[in-house]
Amino acid sequence: MTRTADVVVIGGGIHGCSTALHLALRGLKPILVEKDYAGRHASGVNAGGVRQLARHVAEIPLSIASMALWERIEELVGDDCGFASHGTVLVAESEEELAGFRARVEDLRLKGFTHEELLDRRELKELVPAVSDHCPGGVVSRRDGAADPFRTTQAFRRRAVEKGAEIIEGVRVSGLARSGSAWRVETSDGPIEAPKVVNAAGAWADRIAAQLGEPVPLEVIAPMLMVTSRLPEFIAPVVILRSRKLSFKQLGNGTVVIGGGHLAEPHRDENRTVLDWPKLAISARTVWELFPVMREATIVRAWAGIEASMPDEIPVVGLSTTSEGVFHQFGFCGHGFQLGPATGAVMAELVATGSTNTPIDGLGIARFLPDRARPARS
Amino acid sequence: MNAADLASTYDLVVIGGGPAGLAAAAVAARAGLSTVLFDENPGVGGQIYRAIASTPLKDRAILGDDYWAGEALAAEAGASGALIVTGATVWSLDPGLGVGVSIAGAARLIQARRIIIATGSLERPFPIDGWTLPGVMTAGAAQTALKAQGLVPDGCTTVLAGTGPLLWLLAAQIVRAGGKLDMLLDATPGANWQRAAIHLPDFVLSPYFSKGMSLLQEVRGRVPVVRVDGLKAVGEDRLREVVYRAKGREHRLAADLLLLHQGVVPNVNLALAAGVTHRWNERQLCFEPVVDADFATSVPGIAVAGDGAGIAGGAVAAERGRLAAIAAVRALDPSARVPDAQPIRQRLQREERGRAFLDWLYRPHDALRRPNGDTLVCRCEEVTARQVRDTARLGCEGPNQMKAFLRCGMGPCQGRLCGLTVTELIAAERGTTPEAVGYYRLRPPVKPITLGELASLPKSEAERKAVER
Lengths: 378, 469
Known about the structure:
The complex is a heterodimer.
Chain A: E1 3-4, E2 7-10, H1 14-25, E3 30-34, H2 42-45, E4 49-50, H3 60-70, H4 73-77, E5 88-92, H5 95-110, E6 117-120, H6 121-127, E7 137-141, E8 145-146, H7 149-162, E9 166-169, E10 173-179, E11 182-187, E12 192-194, E13 196-199, H8 205-211, E14 219-221, E15 224-228, E16 238-241, E17 247-250, E18 256-259, E19 265-267, E20 272-274, H9 277-290, E21 298-304, E22 307-309, E23 316-319, E24 326-330, H10 340-353
Parallel strand pairs in A: 1-12, 2-3, 2-13, 3-9, 5-16, 13-24
Antiparallel strand pairs in A: 4-8, 5-7, 6-7, 10-11, 11-12, 14-22, 15-18, 15-21, 16-17, 17-18, 19-20, 23-24
Helix pairs in contact in A: 1-7, 1-10, 3-10
Chain B: E1 9-15, H1 19-30, E2 35-39, H2 60-63, H3 65-79, E3 83-86, E4 88-93, E5 98-103, E6 106-117, E7 121-123, E8 136-138, H4 139-149, E9 158-163, H5 165-176, E10 183-186, H6 192-196, H7 200-205, H8 207-222, E11 225-227, E12 230-234, E13 241-246, E14 249-254, E15 257-262, E16 264-266, H9 269-273, E17 278-281, E18 286-289, E19 302-304, H10 314-332, H11 341-352, H12 355-361, H13 366-369, E20 376-378, E21 383-384, H14 385-393, H15 399-406, H16 419-430, H17 434-437, E22 449-450, H18 451-455, H19 461-468
Parallel strand pairs in B: 1-2, 1-6, 2-3, 6-19, 8-15, 9-10, 9-15, 10-11
Antiparallel strand pairs in B: 4-5, 5-6, 7-16, 12-13, 13-14, 17-18, 20-21
């Protein structure tokens, strides 16, 4: 039997679940198809950073819109998602680096973005007393914070269902094709027909795009994270570095999550990753130097979630260039968790109305297509 | 031995120095493979032959012939040319046969051409009310103290409770060593006989039969034994009373020490972390790796020998280790001389005889495996049975989702003390099987390491260059 819906959303990460929720809030009937379970991959096991700081300019409007939703997340999804706002601090490790940060903050101000503030040495020490003395300053985004990723994704999933979305887990999309005025999405549990389709398939999204004649240079990545046993509270904000790969946060229960983008070896067809210990050792040495208090901390677990990265390190958000009624929402390059709430809202707006007021120029799939395939104006 | 002294590559890395690991290392090294055996304890022997070279209990009657059989195995491995490194914790094993190991606070990554996991078994969780109170220990911990330090319960009121052959063995060993056991509470379900009886003929013909009978007789002659079908530990600050139900009546017994045991299960953490396929064993109520006749797993190059491949005891473990090592030698050097596998397989068969009877007879009680109410399930994160059951009823389908909701299994023990309980509770609440529910996805490090140890890993060429520049 062929099922029908207003929209088929492919992928049950935070992006697919958020889009399904916002579609349902607009009165549409979405069916979300997820091959494993909601939040199984990057959305459920990422570092949980809710960060506006240090983003590519093309993403900033989405990020700012998302921050507004994070600040009322309980109202939106019926769960506080463990969201706590203690800011994110980008630490400079040299005067030279700090000068670069200063230039960026000034440039952002000229563009009208004021969420990033420069910190001098004293201000940095006040916010992050445990940081090593060699750091001359940094940048803070005060409204940033962190949330519990799996809980958040599940909260979006649950609220989407409450609002009328159907979510089918353990079902794989095998293909999609036009069927009259609708799209016919073939799944391992039978076909679904809908006039609109959202491709939020994460590390598997290139396969959907390829079927639509939009091959993209998606790289499957698996950023590694590790967590320590509980330590006395010593740091409130999330700390990130620029010249070395590090993100660092202490959770409410005292454990410290260490990440920053060193990559494991991903095996997307087996839902499996193989950790790269020499790279985790680099993270350990960075922490050793930056936070001497951490030297005797115990690492209890390390892991990596599978996701998609694009060559320019910003996502693909917007309309398909080849297939009317299809929308792309993937390739968040290791920093899509914070963007989930607003990107879902923007996608729902796009699906329902054909356009959005949130600037997403620069995120279209056309940037990866050969010139001849590009429409006159994207 | 320092971590820095290890070679970067070995033909065979054996993880665990119990009977399976010792036997495997001996066969492989004698056949010419470069072989290293890592064991995290101060000496080899594993749990069964713990402290075989150093135990203060020199009267051989106390620990018995089955214990002292470990001496020959340890000597064989020691003389084989295998490098045996004790105090070495293996914290990572990947499907490409990379091994992460820590020795004396320094870590190294080495490469193996073949792996034999011989990490043996651990005690099945015994989640009853009060099992986390001071004064309540596992029987295994008591046996460790006995073998390694010659310590026995003495001068306090001690109760041993649970089920399984090791319970009786420990009782006998404690008494022989001059310890005091006030009561043995036998929680073996009476109904088990129905399923065990059919396997009785095999059992009678097996080496277990006469050993088992004399052990039962010895213990019954010296310790009061009571059949129970309900058990809890009671006390505010520490154990004060053991409360048990016998013949439909509740009894209270003032006690200082309660030793719990309801069988052992394969220690699957390292194999799971390496991606080895496991399955549920309904007879032994645990997960075990899927292995072939040579104990090779689903991951090429990785074998699991010993009790880690399914509980069968020390003698079987050694034979399994030999077979796994012969297969490793044949794969790497077909011309090398190895022992004939046929007689080993025959010995294995003989030893395995009678196992079905023991498994069915000592299958622990449902109520002692699947607790209710406020009984703690996950000790590290303090998660109760009620929380797990409620969350399963709300729709949580598996232990990995449960981890995310309740944090159970996310503490330093990585689920060793709650994994089976959580799987069985979810299966019970959702009306499905443990096989369908599955187990925690295990994340390395399989044993915790300090940030400093991890930072001590030698730098890669690329990283050194980056620093010089």
